[in-house]
Amino acid sequence: MEEKKNELMIEIDDQTAQGVYVNLAMIVHSESEVIFDFIFVQPQAPKARVRSRVVTSPQHAKRFLRALQDNIRKYEEKFGEVKISSDEIRPGFFH
Question: How is the chain split into domains, by residue range?
Answer without folding.
Answer: 20-82
